[in-house]
Amino acid sequence: MEYFSKTDIGRKREVNQDYVFATDQPIGNIPNLLIVADGMGGHKAGDFASKYTTESVVESLKQSTVSGPQAMFEEAISKANTEIIELAASDVNLEGMGTTLVVATVIEHTLYFANVGDSRLYVIGDEIKQLSKDHSLVEEMVRLGGINEDEAKHHPDKNIITRAIGAKLDVEIDFFEYRIVEGDIILMCTDGLSNMVEDEDVFRIIRGSRDLPEAVQGLIDQANLNGGKDNIGIVLAKPLSDEERSL
User: Fold this and answer.
1) Are 119 and 101 in contact (CB under 8 A)?
2) Which of 129, 91, 98 is nearest to 113 (CA)?
């Protein structure tokens, strides 16, 4: 798997609360691992939450004895959620902290991923497809028919999320499987990208770039050019073809 990840503080924030992780090496029984987290809380609590949650998930996956990506992800995410709640309760400086989370792996030709919050996972093939579902107030309004997708993009309550790591003990985790075809590129990102750059521009930048690092930097540059109102966290990954895997 080819991959590249990066965060950027953006143009308006004083602290970078986004955290990303990517590796093509095995983590326990997971053959590769991609993570994006967008922390929330006080001045230091948000960046602590995203980093700690990511590291906790990685450590749990290393030690996991359950089988299958869904069970492994759910176990690791639930454990991290409990730890974040306990830490927030024990330290007034961490009170109220939380984070979004997207965790993914590719096994053979299948993408497996879990998410909590409004950070996103897309697959870019002949078009751009958002596979994750935002856990946000505005997305609930769209589902219930109160507003349409265009209205949701610019709604004043867009940043209110309905699920997060650290919000409650019985965290609700969405899990997805998706069949990858050759040439697909996986994009995982925080809302510092998805709120600032339209999907068609994301597609254009990724498909128009020479390689993944250029694409990631192009996305960050565009988000900042459009205002850079939030931190920007991005993971791009391109699974190897059968021919490349056999070399």
Assistant:
1) yes
2) 129
pLDDT digits (tens, 9 = 90+) for 64-83: 999 999 999 999 999 999 99
CA atoms in the 13 A half-sphere facing the CB of 136: 20
What DSSP assignment string belongs to 132-154? S---BHHHHHHHTTSS-HHHHHT
Closest CA to 107 of 49, 29, 52: 29
Question: Which tokens hold the place of 43?
Answer: 């001045």
Q: DSSP label at 110?
A: E
Residue type for 49, please?
A
For residue 158, the SS3 value is: coil
Bridge partners of residue 98, in order along the sequence? 40
H helix runs in the chain, sequence order: 45-63, 69-90, 137-143, 149-153, 191-194, 199-207, 212-225, 242-246
CATH number of this structure's domain 2-130+164-241: 3.60.40.10
Dihedral pair phi/psi, residue 116, rounded to 5°: -140, 120
Domain ranges of the chain: 2-130+164-241
Give the DSSP letter of residue 156: T
Helix axes 199-207, 212-225, angle to 10 degrees: 150
The Cα–Cα gap between 49 and 88 comes to 9
Distant-in-sequence, close-in-space partners of 83: CB < 8 Å, separation ≥ 6: 52, 56
CB 75 within 8 A of CB 68: no
pLDDT in tens, 91-131: 999 999 999 999 999 999 999 999 999 999 999 999 999 99
